[in-house]
Structure formats: C-alpha cells, structure tokens
Amino acid sequence: MTHDLAGIAGLEARLAKDLSLLEMPSKSWVPARTKDGQRVRDVIFVGAGMCGLTAAARLMLSGVDNIVLYDAAPEGFEGPWETFARMNTLRSPKTLAGPALGLPALTFRAWFEAQWGEKEFDALGKIPKGMWMDYLRWYRSALKLPVVNETRVTGVLDAGDDLIAVSLLDAEGPRTEYCRHLVLATGRSGLGGGAVPGFLEKVDRRFWAHSADEINFGSLQGKRVAVIGAGASAMDNAATALEAGAASVDMLIRRKDLPRVNKMTGISSQGVVHGMRHLPDAWKYRFNDYVNDQQVPPPHTSTLRVTKHPNARTFLGCPVEDVIEAGDHVIVKTPHADFEMDFVIAATGFRNDFTGRPEFASFSGQIKTWKDGVYEPSMGSAKPFMVDAPYLGDAYEFLEKDPGSCPMLARIHCFNDAAMLSHGKLSGDIPAISAGADRLMRGIVSEIFAADVEIHFAGLQAYDVPELQGDEWVDSTPSLMEAVK
Ligand SMILES: Cc1cc2nc3c(=O)[nH]c(=O)nc-3n(C[C@H](O)[C@H](O)[C@H](O)COP(=O)(O)OP(=O)(O)OC[C@H]3O[C@@H](n4cnc5c(N)ncnc54)[C@H](O)[C@@H]3O)c2cc1C
C-alpha cells in the first residue's frame, strides 16, 4: 500500500471546512470558576481511550472547552489496542462510523482513504488493531483534544461548592485539580478489574494471569498452557500463546457447545441505540440477561487462528473446578480429567464491583446499583456483573444508594462498559459511541447551564449591544395626534 501523507493534510483541511460550515466548535459559553486560586475545569475525564476522546470531542464542539483528559498510559497507548488486545484485527466491520460524531471526514474510512485510496479500502478485510490505534491517535490530534498522559487519577473527593477534587499522580508527584463534572471513561475494567475465579486467587501468580494482564508470551515457549473461557479474548490469548511456541494449549470451556450467533449484533438498529434507555428496567435487564446467557461467539478468524494448530485442543463441557500448585506446575481439576499445566490464562471477563479501583473508594460504596432495590428475580438470573452494575441517571450520572449521602455522585458520569445495563451499548463498543457521546454531552451541558442559571440571567439583563441605533425609523404618532386635533 502506498502511504500518502499529503492525503492526511487534505483530509484535515476538509474536516476544518466541514466544522466551519457547521459553526463548530460552538463559542465557549461556560462561566469561569476558580478554587484556591486555580481555574476549575468544567469537566475532567478519567481515561482517554476511544470513549473519552469521543465524549471530549462532543463537548468541545458544543463550546464546553475548559476540559482535560487524564490517562495513566503513555501517549498513543491508551486502551487495549496496543496492550492487552491480542487479536490481529477488530471484530467490527471497517465501514462503521464509530467516533465520527456525524462528521464524514472524521470516519476511519475517510482517514484510511486519504492515505491509501478507495481501492485499498475496498480490498481491506477487517481493520488491523494497530491501524485502529493509529486512527485514534490521528483523531485526537486532528481535533486537538487536551489529553495529558502518564497521569493517574488516584482519588476523588467532594470539595464543596458543587466541585469535585481530583487527586492526580504524575512523574512530578501528586497534585489536586478541581472540576464541576467528572467522567469515568475507564474502559472495560472501568469499575472493577478482571473477574478472576476464586480457585485461582490462592495460586501463586507465576502460574496464571488474567487475559487483560500483561503476559510475557515469550516465556510460554515449550510450556503447557490452559485457557479458561470461550470468548474472543480466550481465543486471542490462546492463539498468541501458540504463535509464541507453547508446547500445547488446551481451551477449557464450561459450555457444551461454543456460542455461534452474535445476537445483539443481529438486532442492532437505531431503535436499539436510542430506545433501550427508555424501556422499563425489567426489559433492559431481560435483553442483557438473554444476551449473557446466549453469549457472544468468538470471531471466526480468531477461532481458526487457534484450531489450525495441531497442538491446540478444545474441551467442551469442561468447567475448571480447582487449580492446585504441584511444585513447578499446577494441576487443573475438571470433572473429566486432571490436567498438568505450566500456565493458566483466565479469559473470564470483568467485574463491576469496584474491587481493584482504589481511586474511586471514596464514593463507590454510596452508588446505587441494580441490586439496590431495582433487580427482582422475575427479571432474570442474578449475574454478579449485572446486579453489581450501577443504576444510572439520564446523563450517565451515578445515583445515591441513600438519597443525600453523597451529592457529588450527581456530577460523576459513568461513561464506560458498566453503563450498558442502564443505557444500552453506547459507552464501550465502536458502533454507537457517537450516540453515547451525544447523550452524555446533552446531560452535562444541561446541568452546567442550569447550575449557572443566575449568571446566565444576569448576563441576559446586562447585555446591551444594540441592533438598532434609533435612527432607522421616525415615530409617526405625533402626526396622528396632529391629525385628530
Ligand atoms: C481486547 C478487546 C478487543 C475489542 N475489540 C472491539 C471491536 O472489535 N469492536 C468494538 O466495537 N469494540 C471492541 N472492544 C470494546 C471497546 O471498543 C474497547 O474496549 C474500547 O477500548 C473502549 O474504549 P474506552 O475508552 O471505553 O476504554 P479504553 O480504551 O480501555 O480506555 C480507558 C483508558 O482509561 C485509562 N484509565 C483507567 N483508569 C485510570 C486512572 N485511574 N487514571 C488515569 N487513566 C485511567 C486507561 O489507561 C485507558 O487508556 C474491544 C475490547 C477489548 C478489551
């Protein structure tokens, strides 16, 4: 493929023109506030992955520009794509508009075609994951999004005056910044971490990893590896181990068959995107419960990437019951057999229970979740990551478990995967991320405007730039008076 860098300059000019045609970004309109001599940020984002970038862009285009995104990762390495994503390509089709916010020049396709042309786009299969990361890097730079990398949010406190104090840690040390709204764009493990089966927690870490951990696959050369799970991550980790020269990889799968149909993708529509939020809670739960029971199949190519290896085996109906250390290896116990293994990878998903998220400890206990009076057994089965999920308001804001106990929750927005049960899939995956960013923007904009209503009213009263000078007309009333005399 020929790489045309001039094409990117042209695309950026086109983007600038489109923005100007749409009068974007809107003028900056949020009144400035200070605290302890510091300018208060209108919004701080925790996380600058795809969701943080898209939501921040949406806010900036709406004139909320005193914002910042903090990300613990080094620049250009936010999110899973160049870290723990071990697939070769995205599952999503290449044509998705994703984070483009309704602007054609911001799409992946426009970015790709600007560099390699339409023919190459037609020839492209799925998007290589590194290329997707490159697109996100461009998105950030084309929109000049204010991301600060290598900075971790370590704590969050109510600072009074409707402000939130955010503790930050970077190479210079700790510091505090204040904001009016905080957006948790913290990704898949946004409110918890990897869901690790209890039987692994007692086992020495040198024998196992969660699929989202950093794993030294080189060290698995010649080793016997077990992968627990049957989702996309299970396949991608198994394939990576095989490609790194593992002696064998055994997929240990609880189900008697692999899920084959991607149910939610099958019914995707603008109805689902915009309508799910407004369904009764019981229906929201029912959709999610069904999808989780059916499960999402691993992608076709990821599955073949594993099964083409003669030293890969798939064991169905084979739940792991225990893992026991045995000197330099472990015994993985299943109802059918005990497997001797050198390493186990748990591709067992994520939790929503805030464990592993000390930065949110000051408020996590106050959040209303689905198990706090919303979930009823008639809705479906009580899956931990569903009943633990936050029960969110219309702007993705957390609600208080006990009203009045933690008012700042109304200004902390959960814009990550954990919002799925309350809002549908608008804050995690690529397809509907622009709709999610739009919903979040509308909520934050309305709240900030309402909070400053007195300032805006005073501004209305004080505004005195005349449109008419007074010399554009003559009052004929005096002549009328003359006529009736
Ligand atoms: C392996 C994998 C493959 C996927 N493939 C697809 C796909 O093909 N199609 C699709 O639609 N979706 C896919 N997804 C789902 C989704 O698109 C991605 O998870 C995407 O990265 C979500 O973006 P995000 O911004 O929510 O989270 P992330 O991209 O994970 O970004 C979160 C960011 O928050 C930062 N962060 C977290 N806590 C802190 C803190 N305390 N301080 C500072 N920074 C912090 C992290 O460093 C990280 O960069 C995939 C997900 C995974 C895990």
Could you characterize what this model shows?
This protein is an alpha/beta fold and 485 residues long. The chain contains 16 helices and 17 strands. It has helices spanning 5-21, 50-61, 108-123, 129-142, 198-201, 232-243, 263-266, 270-275, 281-294, 300-307, 361-364, 384-387, 420-423, 433-451, 453-462, 477-484; strands spanning 34-35, 38-39, 41-46, 67-70, 147-148, 152-158, 164-170, 173-184, 208-210, 224-228, 248-252, 312-315, 322-326, 329-333, 338-341, 343-346, 412-414. The strands form 4 sheets. Strands 3, 4, 5, 6, 7, 8 and 17 form a 7-stranded mixed beta sheet that branches. A 5-stranded parallel beta sheet has the order 9-16-10-11-12, with helices on one face. A hairpin with a 5-residue loop joins strand 6 and strand 7. The longest helix is centred in the last third of the chain and has 19 residues, at 433-451. It is globular, with a radius of gyration of 26 Å. The chain starts with a helix and ends with a helix. The model has no long low-confidence stretch (mean pLDDT 96). The structure holds flavin-adenine dinucleotide. Flavin-adenine dinucleotide binds next to helix 2 and strand 6.
Distance between the termini: 90 Å
Q: Mean pLDDT, rounded to whole units?
A: 96
Nearest-angstrom radius of gyration?
A: 26 Å
Strand % is 15-25%
| Helix fraction bin | 25-40%
Parts with pLDDT < 50 across at least 5 consecutive residues:
none
State the major sheet: 7 strands, mixed
Shape: globular
SSE class = alpha/beta
SS summary, helix count: 16
- Number of distinct beta strands: 17
Bound small molecules, deduplicated: flavin-adenine dinucleotide
